[in-house]
Specification:
Rossmann fold; Na+/H+ antiporter like fold; disordered C terminus; mainly alpha; about 70% helix
């Protein structure tokens, strides 16, 4: 492709993502829907500006899949999976198999080959993890009984996607060769990946620790991306999917205490490439063929909404949940999303899906996500009345570290440790965040929960329990980093008291404007302490001296308030 034309096409793809994302945000719909619509807008099958070669952007789509699966691996929690119990460990695999089997007669009615029906069944059996988690967070039901059931099932679906990306290509071979090729592929993967993963689990924490001690976050990001793409390339060279390698790389990184910092660094890149992935998917959609294939789209929508609702409601109910909880969980899982595209793409790559059926799966995703937003995200009043009293009581929300009623201590250097000493003396619990591995190690030696990472990242703050903290003390010896931390904390919590240590007087007004409750300048505090001691030595009346100091503080606060209108620094 001509280089100039490539950049024009890239600009159109990004414009499509921006317009589609903005439209979805305006209509309060998932961004996935907007990105796909943006792809259709700049695709070759609709009028207007068009990219010249949609397939040239498939590499971006592959990188998006790699980063998506890597972050899923980092966030994957065996503890959460076990917490969900039998609904995840036994119910989820049974539900997936049942949905695939129930898709077979639908495919038979539509005249599909058995292999195509199986691939379609696999694609529609998994829901969009990103969309579901967003809906649950918006409704504050992530840790409700039905939220726990949904999270457990989607965790198992994440694992199922990895397995299905291995199984789907096997369907493209002759029936007599399928079992042999599948077994050989698994054996080759085990022989090569098992020792590498064992070695990686021993070396990766040391490597990340050494990089973290440099305090060079660009290098930290480069290591994380290299691990993700390098492992994906390795599995691809073995004839396995890149998704499998990226997921395994994420699992290896998740073993390290630096996992969430790696995740926070990768997420912006992931979001960009995932947006390009969904736009590139949209460019392949033929709107005219969707109209021609409306019976297929209706059939798939029926499977996703009706069949999946019945299957998952039954599975959750059989796991011992209340009827209302089972219905809410079943309702939440009645959609398909990003992993369906991944599986459908694997099937299309191996000639198992016709272009028309592939387009129908994409259309089904759009329809079911929009329907799911109405049925689950904004549960109708009649359904809420129907389920009233039939949903189990909410469970207490756990945190990555115990943080209810705790102080959040951001920065564990000299000042931070002095604050910690005082908190320890009075038995006040606290959690530490620090970007220095020595700082988090020192906190853990004290028996204090500690999170390694940038306190300016909302992901790291959530991991440390900022949403439930009683107080935040920002003792970071960098005014720019302190500003980012205060801004992130204030976005998360409007009511959280935030006390900040500032190193330069020029940054005081900006930190107050960002939401700091109190700003402490050590030089001012030292000067006031010297004044107090001097007045005591000169035998000035104690009450007069106290009144004077309060007046100085009042003037200082007034000066700070007046300075809030000053322009923020460019780096803030």
């Amino acid at each position: 492709m001509d280089e100039t034309r490539f950049f024009v096409d890239l600009g159109l793809v990004l414009l499509g993502a921006l317009l589609g994302g903005a439209l979805a945000q305006l209509l309060r719909q998932p961004l996935i829907v907007g990105y796909i619509l943006g792809g259709i807008l700049v695709g070759p099958f609709t009028p207007g500006p068009t990219i010249s070669d949609p397939h040239s952007f498939q590499l971006f789509a592959e990188i998006g899949v790699v980063l998506l699966m890597f972050t899923i691996g980092v966030e994957f929690s065996i503890t959460e999976l076990l917490r969900a119990g039998k609904v995840a460990l036994y119910g989820a695999p049974a539900g997936i198999v049942l949905i695939v089997l129930l898709t077979l007669p639908v495919g038979g009615l539509l005249g599909w080959p058995t292999a195509q029906s199986l691939v379609v069944g696999a694609a529609v059996s998994v829901a969009s993890t990103m969309v579901l988690l967003k809906f649950l967070l918006e409704r504050r039901e992530l840790h409700s009984p039905h939220g726990r059931a949904i999270v457990g099932i989607t965790l198992m679906e994440d694992l199922a996607v990895v397995a299905l990306t291995i199984l789907v290509p096997v369907l493209a071979t002759g029936a007599e060769d399928r079992l042999r090729l599948f077994g050989r592929g698994l054996l080759e993967a085990a022989l090569v990946l098992a020792p590498l993963l064992w070695l990686a689990r021993r070396l990766m924490p040391r490597l990340l620790s050494r990089v973290a001690r440099t305090r060079n976050m660009e290098l930290f990001l480069l290591v994380a991306i290299s691990v993700a793409i390098g492992t994906a390339a390795l599995t691809a060279s073995l004839g396995l999917s890149v998704a499998l390698g990226a997921f395994l790389a994420g699992l290896v990184v998740s073993e390290s205490e630096f996992a969430y910092e790696a995740l926070s660094r990768v997420l912006p890149m992931r979001d960009l490439f995932v947006a390009l992935f969904f736009v590139s998917v949209g460019t392949l959609v033929r709107p005219a063929s969707l109209l021609a294939e409306w019976p297929t789209v209706l059939a798939l929508v029926f499977v996703v909404i009706v069949v999946k609702f019945a299957v998952w409601t039954t599975v959750v109910r059989a796991a011992g949940y209340a009827a209302g909880t089972a219905a809410m969980a079943g309702l939440g899982l009645t959609q398909i999303g990003e992993f369906s595209y991944v599986l459908a793409g694997v099937g299309r790559l191996h000639g198992l899906l016709s272009p028309a059926v592939y387009d129908a799966i994409l259309a089904t995703s759009l329809v079911t996500i929009l329907a799911n937003a109405l049925l689950f995200r904004r549960t109708p009043a009649w359904l809420q009345r129907l389920l009233a009293g039939r949903v189990g009581p909410p469970e207490p929300e756990p945190a990555g570290v115990p943080a209810d009623g705790r102080a959040l201590l951001c920065g564990f250097g000299r000042v931070g440790r002095q604050v910690a000493d005082a908190l320890d003396a009075f038995g006040a619990p606290y959690t530490v965040i620090d970007l220095d591995p020595d700082g988090t190690t020192a906190a853990k030696i004290r028996g204090v929960p500690a999170v390694f990472g940038d306190a300016g990242s909302e992901l790291i703050l959530r991991r440390a329990g900022a949403e439930r903290a009683r107080l935040a003390v920002v003792a970071i010896p960098d005014d720019e980093a302190a500003y980012r931390c205060v801004s992130a904390l204030r976005r998360m919590r409007e009511d959280l008291p935030i006390i900040v240590r500032v190193t330069h007087e020029a940054a005081r007004s900006d930190l107050l404007a960002a939401g700091a409750t109190e700003v402490i300048l050590p030089e001012v505090e030292a000067a006031l302490t010297i004044v107090r001691h001097s007045l005591d030595r000169l035998e000035v009346d104690h009450s007069e001296g106290r009144r004077y100091l309060e007046e100085v503080r009042r003037h200082w606060s007034a000066d700070l308030s007046a300075a809030q209108g000053a322009e923020r620094p460019a780096g803030g």
